[in-house]
Design brief:
The complex is a heterodimer of chains A (124) and B (728).
Chain A: E1 3-7, H1 11-23, E2 27-31, H2 34-43, E3 48-52, H3 60-69, E4 78-82, H4 89-95, E5 100-103, H5 108-119
Parallel strand pairs in A: 1-2, 1-3, 3-4, 4-5
Helix pairs in contact in A: 2-3
Chain B: H1 2-73, H2 77-90, E1 96-103, E2 111-116, E3 122-126, H3 138-147, E4 153-160, E5 163-172, H4 177-256, H5 262-293, E6 302-305, H6 306-323, E7 327-332, E8 338-341, H7 343-359, E9 365-375, E10 378-387, H8 394-399, H9 409-415, H10 421-431, E11 435-441, E12 445-453, E13 481-485, H11 489-501, E14 505-509, H12 512-522, E15 526-529, H13 538-547, E16 556-560, H14 565-571, E17 575-578, H15 583-598, E18 602-605, H16 609-621, E19 626-629, H17 632-641, E20 646-649, H18 658-665, E21 676-680, H19 686-692, E22 698-701, H20 703-707, H21 710-718
Parallel strand pairs in B: 7-9, 13-14, 13-15, 15-16, 16-17, 18-19, 18-20, 20-21, 21-22
Antiparallel strand pairs in B: 1-5, 2-3, 4-5, 6-8, 9-10, 10-12, 11-12
Helix pairs in contact in B: 1-2, 1-4, 2-4, 4-5, 5-10, 6-7, 7-10, 12-13, 17-18
The chains are: A alpha/beta (124), B alpha/beta (728).
């Protein structure tokens, strides 16, 4: 079963999203800040990363750049999650190397569709 | 012998003649030489003159080039003037002993050529000083100048267009008519050139200043705009985060309710509830700040026990304290007792300070100390909240109380919140007549100190109770009155001064509620109102005045910083002025309303048709607008619609007599300010006079109206004049 790395500093959102993804059959590993995200991207070799951009230490933009720049993690698709639904955020996310972009509050069904685009249909 | 003598004589004569001829020849040649010499002299003189002309031309040219240099190279007024003086002094041909320049001179002599006098000298007139010298010659002016201790000195005006902006003060070795003829025109035109140069420089400087001001204003606007954008971005993030939890958990519950344990369901419901509460507090903060910013936040003063408020706040923040494992110590002085203030605002401020302390402090201690002091301004309560948290740098402290900014954006990320709490708290404290101050050091914690008067009144921005500015003009009725409504004491003061000077009685109201009440009671000629006021704003004032029949006719001038003319028109304002106030325009508007008032009609209340018609005709002939009533009841109906400038009242009438009319008329708003003249055929007894209770200015027998001009009476006795352009 595919592993998804969920990077999210807000406890409620982390708990909620990881539980929902697990119920859909994914294995979820979590990171609470940018440094942990970079470390787990390499250590857990997830099939996909959901990246909150507004996180402590190093932010989501910088973490994405580092993950995309490293050889062993550069191929992992990253979906940016941001509550900053401001004009230009989407372009900015794609610029730093994100493969997709989703705003908060998360539209869960749409997020699942986007995940399936990268990982293929679930086998549950 | 004779022959020889004769011969001798002849020879002598011949020789004499010859000599004579020779002499004549010499004389002639001498004359010729003389003529030649004169010619030479003339030529020499001409050459000399030409040379002087050339010198003058040379000086002119050199002055010209110097002026050009001065214009192009020198960037300050002082520099230009210093160089001008130096250059003039260095031109030897002018023979100047000293030159100095001064701008905007006090009155003095300034020489201007006015033509030539009979002797060919230049006529000079003085420019600035008393004009006895107007047609005097330059010499005589110098003489006068010398007598007045101005020996050898004169001034050349520095002019720009027709305006004199300064002068060049010079002393010269010679200043006879010849010198004047030669140099004065040159110096005068030089003065003008310098004037133009300086004026141009001043314009440039003013322009640069304006540009700099504009840039500054633009930068400030850009910065404010940026702060608002940042705030919106932060708000968007802050609002979406709890929304995310609410929507996510509730979706989860809907999908999986059947397969969930009751404990699990309650846990998720708790999370939804918590996120909802958080969202609500965010929205409340935003509403608070926007209310404060638009001046709509109200203050409700009540008495409450200080210790119990602190206890209440302590209980409220307990959960937050536990979260970061902080300890709380509270000390309330025994003498704190009661305070009269806005309980909600005091409570909200304390909760804000305590929850900040709890948020920015981990496993630390928080201390609250409340004391009561006597200050020169009265008793105050001091609430001190000290924490051992992360503290702040001085730059962070500087931005602390501004709306829309948090210490920095990373703080927002770490600690959440809108960054509005402190801005709101400070504004609350100031509304209550107090303030919040802070002392902090990075890494060592912070101390916030709230100082509030033990007894608060609603205060203005300057800290003086607003009610202190409320004032009713005392000499009511003699001069037209204007009611000024504004919550800014400075504005009240300015309007008061200006309008009083313009000949109005001025009533002042510091808030909309008082304003409307005063307008209803005092019936001013006009009302001016500010827009941004707490509680009741200017639009509400205009609407209230328009909706009340007692005030609906009073013209209202809206005076405001923001240009929202459409709104003014919509609510029924008569005129619209933006701040800063254009005083001359305000003066014009008020003068127009004064005329409207003077255009008010004369009311004639008289039951006898013939007498009524006679008076009305006389009045109309003299340009008065006249209202007619055949009895007191009709008269009252008329005055309710429009207050007349004077009433001519008969006493004996059917339905409602003059006594009754008078009694009722004095009770209607503004009625006591209108002079009433009783015109009666009967003799008024002292008892009847007493019945009228001094409410009548004069009693004239009816016969007077047939014999005398009523208008003249009104003019001479009551100083009333018809409107210049009668309406009928």
């Amino acid at each position: 079963m595919s592993t998804i790395l969920l990077v999210e500093d807000n406890e409620l959102n982390r708990d909620m999203l990881s539980r929902r993804l697990q119920r859909k059959g994914y294995t979820v590993t979590v990171a609470v800040d940018g440094e942990e995200a970079v470390a787990k991207a390499s250590a857990d070799s997830p099939a996909l990363i959901l990246m909150d951009m507004n996180i402590p230490l190093i932010d989501g933009w910088e973490a994405t750049k580092r993950i995309k720049a490293a050889e062993e993690t550069g191929q992992i698709p990253i979906i940016a999650l941001t509550a900053h639904a401001m004009a230009g955020d989407r372009e900015k996310a794609l610029d730093v190397g994100c493969d997709e972009y989703e705003t908060k509050p998360v539209e869960f069904v749409r997020l699942l569709e986007k995940i399936e685009q990268f990982l293929g249909p679930r086998q549950s | 012998m004779d022959i020889s003598r004769e011969d001798q004589l002849k020879a002598d004569l011949a020789a004499f003649e010859k000599q004579n001829e020779e002499l004549q020849r010499r004389v002639q040649s001498l004359a010729e030489a003389n003529a030649h010499a004169a010619e030479l002299m003339a030529a020499l003189e001409e050459a000399n003159e030409r040379e002087q002309e050339l010198v003058a031309r040379g000086v002119e040219l050199s002055l010209q080039t110097r002026v050009d240099t001065i214009l192009q190279e020198l960037r300050s007024e002082e520099e230009i003037l210093a160089h001008v003086c130096k250059e003039l002094k260095e031109i030897d041909d002018l023979g100047l002993i000293s030159v100095r320049a001064e701008m905007y001179p006090t009155a003095g002599y300034c020489f201007l050529p006015e033509g030539h006098d009979e002797a060919g000298g230049l006529k000079i007139r003085s420019e600035l000083l008393p004009m006895p010298y107007a047609s005097d010659s330059f010499e005589s002016i110098l003489e006068v100048a010398r007598e007045e201790g101005l020996s050898g000195a004169f001034w050349i005006p520095i002019r720009s267009r027709d305006e004199q902006i300064g002068r060049l003060h010079m002393e010269s070795e010679t200043h006879d008519a010849r010198w004047c003829r030669r140099w004065l025109p040159l110096l005068l035109s030089f003065g003008s050139q310098v004037g133009v140069a300086i004026q141009r420089l001043r314009a440039e400087v003013a322009n640069e200043q304006m540009n700099a001001d504009l840039m500054k204003a633009r930068d400030a606007a850009v910065e404010a705009n940026y702060a608002k954008s940042m705030f919106l971005a932060n708000m968007s993030h802050e609002l979406r985060t709890p929304m995310n939890a609410i929507i996510g958990y509730s979706e989860m519950l809907m999908e999986e309710f059947d397969s969930m344990e009751p404990d699990e369901v309650v846990g998720d419901l708790n999370k939804i509830h918590g996120a909802g509460r958080h969202l609500l507090s965010l929205i409340n903060d935003v509403l608070d700040i926007s209310k404060i910013e638009s001046g709509k936040m109200t203050v409700f003063i009540e008495a409450f026990d200080v210790a119990s408020v602190v206890r209440d706040v302590e209980n409220t923040v307990q959960p937050l304290l536990r979260q970061n494992q902080n300890t709380l110590e509270v000390r309330v002085g025994d003498d704190c007792g009661e305070m009269k203030s806005d309980l909600t605002k005091v409570r909200q401020t304390l909760i804000n300070l305590l929850s900040n302390a709890a948020k920015f402090c981990e496993q630390g201690s928080i201390r609250v100390v409340v004391t009561r002091h006597a200050e020169p301004s009265g008793e105050v309560l001091v609430f001190q909240v000290t924490d051992t948290g992360i503290g702040m740098s001085s730059t962070q402290v500087a931005k602390l109380f501004q709306a829309f900014t948090q210490a920095d954006s990373s703080t927002t990320r770490r600690f959440g919140g809108t960054g509005l709490g402190l801005a709101i708290s400070r504004r609350f404290c100031r509304m209550l007549g107090g303030d919040i101050t802070v002392e902090s050091e990075t890494g060592k914690g912070s101390t916030f100190t709230v100082t509030l008067p033990a007894v608060s009144t609603e205060v203005s921005a300057t800290g003086t109770p607003l009610d202190a500015y409320k004032r009713e003009a005392t000499s009511q009725g003699k001069r037209p009155s204007i009611l000024v409504i504004d919550d800014d004491p400075v504005m009240l003061e300015l309007m008061d001064r200006f309008l009083t000077k313009e000949g109005f009685d001025v009533h002042l109201a510091a808030n909309g509620r008082d304003g409307v009440e005063m307008a209803r009671r005092l019936q001013p000629m006009a009302v001016t109102t500010d827009v941004m006021m707490p509680e009741m704003d200017g639009w509400e004032v205009v609407t209230a005045l328009r909706n009340d029949p007692k005030t609906s006719q009073i013209p209202v001038v809206v005076v405001t910083v923001t240009d929202s003319r459409d709104m003014g028109v919509a609510v029924g304002a008569s005129q619209y002025l933006t701040k800063p106030v254009d005083w001359s325009r305000l003066g014009e508007i008020m003068a127009r309303h004064r005329k409207d008032r003077d255009g008010r009609p004369v009311l004639v209340v008289e039951d006898d048709e013939a007498s009524r018609e006679q008076i009305v005709r006389l009045l109309k002939k003299d340009g008065w607008r006249v209202l007619e009533a055949e009895n007191g009841r009709v008269g009252l109906e008329l005055v309710e619609a429009e207050l007349p400038v004077v009433i001519l009242l008969d006493l004996m009438m059917p339905e409602m007599d003059g006594f009754e009319f008078l009694k009722r008329f004095r009770q209607i708003p503004g009625g006591d300010a209108v002079p009433v003249v009783v015109v009666s055929a009967m003799d008024v007894t002292p008892a009847q006079r007493a019945q009228m209770n001094g409410g009548v200015v004069d009693i004239i027998p009816k016969s007077i109206t047939t014999a005398k001009d009523v208008s003249k009476y009104l003019r001479d006795r009551l100083h009333l004049n018809p409107h210049p352009s009668p309406l009928n």
